[in-house]
Amino acid sequence: MAKGNYTVRRLAGKALPVALAIITAFVFWKTRGMGKAEEAGDTADDSMRYFMLRELVSAVTQQVSESFAPFVSFAEEDSGISFWLLKEQIGCLIPFYGYTDHILPEEEDSEESVREILLAEAEEGISEAGREEAEGLQPEGVDRSLAELLREENEAVLQQREEGTAFVPHERMEQVDLAALADFETLLGRFYTVDSNTMAGSDQLNVARFLEKDMRVSKEEPGPQILIYHTHSQESFADSVPGDSATSIVGVGDRLTQILTEEYGYQVLHHTEAYDADTRNDAYSRALPGVEQVLRDNPTIQVVIDLHRDEMPEGTRLVTELDGRPTARFMFFNGLSRTKKTGNIAYLYNENLESNLAFSFQMQLKAAEYYPGLTRKIYLKGYRYNMHLRDRYLLVELGAQNNTVEEAMNACDPLAHILDMVLSGGE
Predict the structure, then answer these.
(1) Could you tell me if 252 and 157 are in contact, meaning their C-beta atoms sit under 8 angstroms apart?
(2) In-domain check, residue 170
(3) Rounded distance, CA 232 to CA 279, Å?
């Protein structure tokens, strides 16, 4: 009898704290459940409490199992397919054990949910810290506009370019087979894209005549030798700062002017008049008298470059990696003053057409040999585009609207090198 009383007291001693733990957990859960209706949206906290309560109940269940039915723990570890039947029966014999299954609501992947919440909170904490750090860098009450951020980014890019990888002009990397280009179809396929509104024949595209043209320019004569201007000065890039011409095609013209002057010794005039400020319509017509006046005022100018950026589908990016530098690809452009519909356009007659074509061909040839893949094919279209103003007239489409300012600026280095090789007659 004494032994039986001792056994009962021992079991009761173990059961009492277990029962208290379960009751405490149940009250905690129910209290929070009532509070949830008053604290809508506190999902993360409720999920955390759920996780803690689940762990507490799991520990209680384990203690009950070990105290009253040790074989249950063994069966659960084995995890046989019939364990759930045994668990139901044990729940009926030991109410505390069965009751734990009804305290907590069913929730799928609760551990995964809590992990996701913890990760989300950690990420939010990092974001908040980053915002606080960024806000701490500016005076209180000052809003940093997108334009300011873009300007700082572009200034950082320019600084990085000056401090980072310096451009090194290439040696010849490939040798173009000029004999093969004597065949018109080979020349056309390798070097040109002809717009659907115009036509080009072997009478206009002749490699032998193109190579006979002497494009050399003396750097010794006083006065500017090169004019750079922009029929479409409002053209910009993906990260250009609105209203900041330094990050538009005009800024690219500044960079090209700087390289040609400082690195190659040319005198360059950069004409920045805006001929498309209100509309692009008739920009070439509006530009013509302005550029003619510049040429009259500076008769030493022998080379004219109309620098543009192209427009491409958003999924097409004109960029290549050149010696570790992201570099916008560019294209030379010629107007033929003829269309399929009208034939030769008399009022757009261009006495310098063959020289214009020779100039772009010699540029494309040097690009193909020294910077393979950097340039696109020469584009031929039907009108004149003011190219009659000089025999050495180059219309360049550098990059497109989805290129970055950095990529466009980087393209100025090889473009200047190619131009110098043609104008100096060097290698």
Answers:
(1) no
(2) yes
(3) 9
Return the sign of the alpha-carbon dihedral for residues 161, 163, 164, 169: positive
Residues 144-164: tens digit of each pLDDT: 555 566 666 556 555 655 555
Does residue 371 form part of some domain?
Answer: yes
Contact 232, 276 (CB under 8 A): yes
CA distance 223 to 226: 9
Instruction: Give the per-residue pLDDT at 164.
Output: 58
Comparing 30-44, 54-68, 144-158, 273-287, the range with the smallest average pLDDT is 30-44
Find the domain containing 24 and state its range: 2-107
Q: Report the CATH number that the domain containing residue 168 is assigned in CATH.
A: 3.40.630.40
Give yes or no: residues 379 and 302 share one domain: yes
Q: Which candidate, 14, 22, 20, 11, places its Cα nearest to that of 101? A: 22
Residue 142 lies in a domain: no
Distance CA 213, CA 378 (A): 18
Looking at the structure, do residues 242 and 93 belong to the same domain, yes or no?
no
Could you tell me if 276 and 350 lie in one domain? yes
0.70 exceeded by pTM: no
- Asked if residue 183 is part of any domain, the answer here is yes
Instruction: Give Cα separations from 14 to 65, 73, 200, 349, 387 (angstroms).
Output: 11, 17, 100, 108, 100
Contact between 356 and 393 under an 8 Å Cβ cutoff? The reply is yes
Question: 166 and 72 in one domain?
Answer: no
Amino acid 98: pLDDT: 52
Q: What is the C-alpha to C-alpha distance for residues 399 and 405, in angstroms, rounded to an integer?
A: 10
